[in-house]
Write a structure and sequence with these properties.
Layout lengths: L15 H15 L11 H8 L4 H14 L2 H21 L11 H9 L1 H12 L6 H5 L3 H24 L4 H9 L1 H8 L3 H12 L3 H18 L9 H32 L1
Helix pairs in contact: 3-12, 3-13, 4-5, 4-13, 6-13, 8-9, 8-10, 8-11, 9-11, 10-11, 12-13
Length: 261
Protein backbone atom coordinates (compact mmCIF):
# COMPACT_ATOMS: atom_id res chain seq x y z
CA UNK A 1 0.00 0.00 0.00
CA UNK A 2 1.44 3.22 -1.16
CA UNK A 3 0.68 6.58 0.38
CA UNK A 4 1.19 9.55 -1.91
CA UNK A 5 2.16 12.63 -0.09
CA UNK A 6 1.76 16.04 -1.73
CA UNK A 7 4.93 17.85 -1.04
CA UNK A 8 4.69 21.64 -1.25
CA UNK A 9 7.82 23.48 -2.38
CA UNK A 10 9.38 25.65 0.21
CA UNK A 11 9.97 29.28 -0.82
CA UNK A 12 13.28 30.62 0.30
CA UNK A 13 13.12 33.41 2.79
CA UNK A 14 13.96 36.76 1.17
CA UNK A 15 17.38 38.00 2.04
CA UNK A 16 18.48 41.63 2.32
CA UNK A 17 20.35 41.37 -1.00
CA UNK A 18 17.26 40.02 -2.77
CA UNK A 19 15.09 42.81 -1.40
CA UNK A 20 17.56 45.45 -2.56
CA UNK A 21 17.65 43.90 -6.04
CA UNK A 22 13.84 43.92 -6.28
CA UNK A 23 13.65 47.56 -5.18
CA UNK A 24 16.30 48.56 -7.75
CA UNK A 25 14.47 46.69 -10.53
CA UNK A 26 11.12 48.32 -9.76
CA UNK A 27 12.68 51.76 -9.50
CA UNK A 28 14.38 51.43 -12.88
CA UNK A 29 11.15 50.24 -14.52
CA UNK A 30 9.25 53.29 -13.17
CA UNK A 31 11.91 55.81 -14.26
CA UNK A 32 11.46 57.17 -17.82
CA UNK A 33 14.19 56.22 -20.25
CA UNK A 34 16.51 59.11 -21.01
CA UNK A 35 16.35 58.19 -24.71
CA UNK A 36 12.57 58.29 -24.78
CA UNK A 37 11.42 61.54 -26.45
CA UNK A 38 9.12 63.81 -24.49
CA UNK A 39 5.90 63.91 -26.43
CA UNK A 40 3.93 67.10 -25.84
CA UNK A 41 0.33 66.60 -24.91
CA UNK A 42 -2.31 68.10 -27.22
CA UNK A 43 -3.24 70.64 -24.54
CA UNK A 44 0.38 71.83 -24.19
CA UNK A 45 0.74 72.12 -27.95
CA UNK A 46 -2.50 74.11 -28.20
CA UNK A 47 -1.39 76.53 -25.47
CA UNK A 48 1.97 77.08 -27.20
CA UNK A 49 0.27 77.95 -30.49
CA UNK A 50 -2.37 80.18 -28.92
CA UNK A 51 -2.25 83.96 -29.40
CA UNK A 52 -1.44 85.37 -25.94
CA UNK A 53 -3.75 88.39 -26.31
CA UNK A 54 -3.21 92.06 -27.04
CA UNK A 55 -2.02 93.15 -23.58
CA UNK A 56 0.50 90.28 -23.39
CA UNK A 57 1.72 91.05 -26.91
CA UNK A 58 2.31 94.70 -26.00
CA UNK A 59 4.14 93.57 -22.86
CA UNK A 60 6.43 91.28 -24.85
CA UNK A 61 7.04 93.99 -27.43
CA UNK A 62 7.88 96.47 -24.67
CA UNK A 63 10.39 94.03 -23.15
CA UNK A 64 12.01 93.52 -26.57
CA UNK A 65 12.26 97.29 -27.12
CA UNK A 66 13.99 97.75 -23.75
CA UNK A 67 16.63 95.21 -24.81
CA UNK A 68 17.18 97.06 -28.12
CA UNK A 69 16.35 100.65 -27.20
CA UNK A 70 18.68 102.56 -29.57
CA UNK A 71 16.41 102.55 -32.66
CA UNK A 72 13.45 103.63 -30.53
CA UNK A 73 15.44 106.53 -29.11
CA UNK A 74 16.37 107.63 -32.64
CA UNK A 75 12.70 107.72 -33.71
CA UNK A 76 11.43 109.42 -30.55
CA UNK A 77 14.34 111.87 -30.50
CA UNK A 78 13.88 112.85 -34.14
CA UNK A 79 10.15 113.35 -33.68
CA UNK A 80 10.56 115.55 -30.61
CA UNK A 81 13.42 117.52 -32.21
CA UNK A 82 11.29 118.33 -35.26
CA UNK A 83 8.35 119.28 -33.03
CA UNK A 84 10.60 121.67 -31.10
CA UNK A 85 11.95 123.16 -34.34
CA UNK A 86 8.40 123.57 -35.63
CA UNK A 87 7.43 125.29 -32.41
CA UNK A 88 10.33 127.75 -32.68
CA UNK A 89 9.59 128.54 -36.34
CA UNK A 90 5.84 128.99 -35.81
CA UNK A 91 6.15 130.65 -32.41
CA UNK A 92 3.58 128.22 -31.06
CA UNK A 93 3.55 125.04 -29.04
CA UNK A 94 1.73 121.89 -30.18
CA UNK A 95 -1.00 122.75 -27.66
CA UNK A 96 -1.69 126.14 -29.28
CA UNK A 97 -4.45 126.65 -31.82
CA UNK A 98 -3.20 126.86 -35.39
CA UNK A 99 -0.05 124.80 -34.79
CA UNK A 100 0.87 122.85 -37.93
CA UNK A 101 2.45 119.42 -37.52
CA UNK A 102 3.73 119.02 -41.08
CA UNK A 103 7.29 118.47 -39.82
CA UNK A 104 6.20 115.54 -37.67
CA UNK A 105 4.48 113.99 -40.70
CA UNK A 106 7.77 114.18 -42.59
CA UNK A 107 9.49 112.28 -39.77
CA UNK A 108 6.89 109.56 -40.16
CA UNK A 109 7.71 109.28 -43.86
CA UNK A 110 11.46 109.16 -43.18
CA UNK A 111 11.09 106.23 -40.77
CA UNK A 112 8.34 104.45 -42.72
CA UNK A 113 10.41 101.42 -43.75
CA UNK A 114 12.70 101.55 -40.71
CA UNK A 115 9.74 101.14 -38.36
CA UNK A 116 8.70 97.91 -40.13
CA UNK A 117 12.28 96.59 -40.03
CA UNK A 118 12.46 97.39 -36.32
CA UNK A 119 9.06 95.79 -35.73
CA UNK A 120 10.26 92.49 -37.19
CA UNK A 121 13.38 92.67 -35.01
CA UNK A 122 11.11 93.09 -31.97
CA UNK A 123 8.88 90.20 -33.05
CA UNK A 124 11.86 87.93 -33.75
CA UNK A 125 13.68 88.99 -30.56
CA UNK A 126 16.68 90.20 -32.56
CA UNK A 127 18.93 93.09 -31.61
CA UNK A 128 19.71 95.43 -34.52
CA UNK A 129 22.02 98.40 -34.70
CA UNK A 130 20.96 101.91 -35.64
CA UNK A 131 22.78 101.39 -38.96
CA UNK A 132 20.70 98.29 -39.72
CA UNK A 133 17.59 100.13 -38.58
CA UNK A 134 18.25 103.03 -40.96
CA UNK A 135 19.40 100.91 -43.93
CA UNK A 136 17.50 102.21 -46.95
CA UNK A 137 16.04 100.01 -49.67
CA UNK A 138 14.27 102.13 -52.30
CA UNK A 139 12.21 99.26 -53.70
CA UNK A 140 10.85 98.17 -50.32
CA UNK A 141 10.38 101.76 -49.16
CA UNK A 142 8.10 102.71 -52.05
CA UNK A 143 6.27 99.39 -51.80
CA UNK A 144 5.51 100.13 -48.14
CA UNK A 145 4.54 103.71 -49.03
CA UNK A 146 2.11 102.70 -51.78
CA UNK A 147 0.74 99.85 -49.64
CA UNK A 148 0.06 102.32 -46.81
CA UNK A 149 -1.68 104.72 -49.22
CA UNK A 150 -3.87 101.96 -50.65
CA UNK A 151 -4.78 100.73 -47.16
CA UNK A 152 -5.77 104.28 -46.18
CA UNK A 153 -7.90 104.65 -49.32
CA UNK A 154 -9.74 101.39 -48.64
CA UNK A 155 -10.34 102.39 -45.01
CA UNK A 156 -11.69 105.84 -45.98
CA UNK A 157 -13.92 104.39 -48.72
CA UNK A 158 -15.38 101.87 -46.29
CA UNK A 159 -16.30 104.75 -43.96
CA UNK A 160 -17.69 107.03 -46.68
CA UNK A 161 -19.48 104.57 -48.97
CA UNK A 162 -20.51 101.99 -46.36
CA UNK A 163 -20.04 99.23 -48.95
CA UNK A 164 -18.02 97.09 -46.57
CA UNK A 165 -17.97 97.98 -42.84
CA UNK A 166 -14.72 99.35 -41.45
CA UNK A 167 -14.87 96.66 -38.76
CA UNK A 168 -13.97 94.18 -41.53
CA UNK A 169 -11.82 96.34 -43.80
CA UNK A 170 -9.35 97.56 -41.18
CA UNK A 171 -8.35 94.04 -40.05
CA UNK A 172 -8.07 92.95 -43.70
CA UNK A 173 -5.43 95.59 -44.49
CA UNK A 174 -3.83 95.78 -41.03
CA UNK A 175 -0.86 93.48 -41.74
CA UNK A 176 -0.30 94.47 -45.37
CA UNK A 177 2.90 96.47 -44.86
CA UNK A 178 4.45 93.55 -42.95
CA UNK A 179 3.57 91.15 -45.75
CA UNK A 180 5.01 93.57 -48.32
CA UNK A 181 8.39 93.71 -46.55
CA UNK A 182 8.53 90.08 -45.41
CA UNK A 183 7.53 88.48 -48.70
CA UNK A 184 8.49 91.19 -51.21
CA UNK A 185 4.90 91.46 -52.38
CA UNK A 186 3.31 94.20 -54.46
CA UNK A 187 0.86 96.50 -52.65
CA UNK A 188 -2.25 94.68 -53.88
CA UNK A 189 -0.72 91.24 -53.27
CA UNK A 190 0.28 92.33 -49.76
CA UNK A 191 -3.28 93.49 -49.02
CA UNK A 192 -4.69 90.18 -50.32
CA UNK A 193 -2.24 88.24 -48.16
CA UNK A 194 -3.14 90.34 -45.12
CA UNK A 195 -6.82 89.65 -45.74
CA UNK A 196 -6.11 85.92 -45.96
CA UNK A 197 -4.22 85.96 -42.66
CA UNK A 198 -6.74 88.04 -40.70
CA UNK A 199 -9.94 86.69 -42.25
CA UNK A 200 -10.78 84.58 -39.19
CA UNK A 201 -8.79 86.66 -36.69
CA UNK A 202 -10.44 90.08 -36.68
CA UNK A 203 -10.74 89.97 -32.89
CA UNK A 204 -6.96 89.72 -32.46
CA UNK A 205 -6.47 92.74 -34.75
CA UNK A 206 -9.06 94.86 -32.98
CA UNK A 207 -7.52 93.87 -29.66
CA UNK A 208 -4.18 95.37 -30.74
CA UNK A 209 -5.91 98.48 -32.09
CA UNK A 210 -7.84 98.91 -28.84
CA UNK A 211 -4.80 98.61 -26.58
CA UNK A 212 -2.84 100.98 -28.84
CA UNK A 213 -5.66 103.51 -28.66
CA UNK A 214 -5.80 103.33 -24.85
CA UNK A 215 -2.04 103.80 -24.51
CA UNK A 216 -2.05 106.70 -26.98
CA UNK A 217 -4.83 108.48 -25.09
CA UNK A 218 -3.02 107.78 -21.83
CA UNK A 219 0.12 109.44 -23.22
CA UNK A 220 -1.61 112.82 -23.08
CA UNK A 221 -1.33 112.73 -19.30
CA UNK A 222 2.13 114.26 -19.84
CA UNK A 223 0.46 117.30 -21.40
CA UNK A 224 -0.34 118.63 -17.92
CA UNK A 225 3.36 119.35 -17.37
CA UNK A 226 3.95 123.11 -17.88
CA UNK A 227 5.76 124.31 -21.05
CA UNK A 228 7.19 120.94 -22.19
CA UNK A 229 4.07 118.87 -21.52
CA UNK A 230 3.00 118.44 -25.15
CA UNK A 231 6.52 117.52 -26.23
CA UNK A 232 6.63 114.83 -23.56
CA UNK A 233 3.23 113.62 -24.76
CA UNK A 234 4.54 113.49 -28.34
CA UNK A 235 7.53 111.45 -27.18
CA UNK A 236 5.25 109.02 -25.33
CA UNK A 237 2.96 108.67 -28.35
CA UNK A 238 5.90 107.86 -30.63
CA UNK A 239 7.17 105.29 -28.15
CA UNK A 240 3.70 103.70 -28.06
CA UNK A 241 3.80 103.63 -31.86
CA UNK A 242 7.11 101.75 -31.79
CA UNK A 243 5.76 99.16 -29.33
CA UNK A 244 2.51 98.91 -31.29
CA UNK A 245 4.40 98.12 -34.49
CA UNK A 246 6.32 95.42 -32.67
CA UNK A 247 3.12 93.84 -31.33
CA UNK A 248 1.58 93.96 -34.82
CA UNK A 249 4.63 92.21 -36.29
CA UNK A 250 4.22 89.55 -33.58
CA UNK A 251 0.64 88.97 -34.71
CA UNK A 252 1.83 88.74 -38.31
CA UNK A 253 4.41 86.06 -37.37
CA UNK A 254 1.81 84.20 -35.31
CA UNK A 255 -0.76 84.14 -38.12
CA UNK A 256 1.87 83.19 -40.69
CA UNK A 257 2.76 80.18 -38.53
CA UNK A 258 -0.91 79.40 -37.97
CA UNK A 259 -1.58 79.67 -41.72
CA UNK A 260 1.16 77.16 -42.58
CA UNK A 261 0.07 74.65 -39.95
Amino acid sequence: MFVFLKIRPRHPKPTIGTMRSNIRRHTMSDTPNANTPNVATPAATTDANKWPGAFAAYGKAYDAVKKNIQPALVVVGAYVAVALLNSVIQGKTPADEGYKSSGEAIVGLVFLLAMVVYAFAIADKRVISVKQFMKFNAGKYFTVLFTSILCSIFAVLSLVLFIVPIIWVLPWVYLAIYAAVDKDLSPMAAIKHSKQLTRDHKGEVWGLIGVGFLLTVGSFIFAVVPVVGMFLAYAAIMFVSVVSNGASAMLYRHLEKHNKA
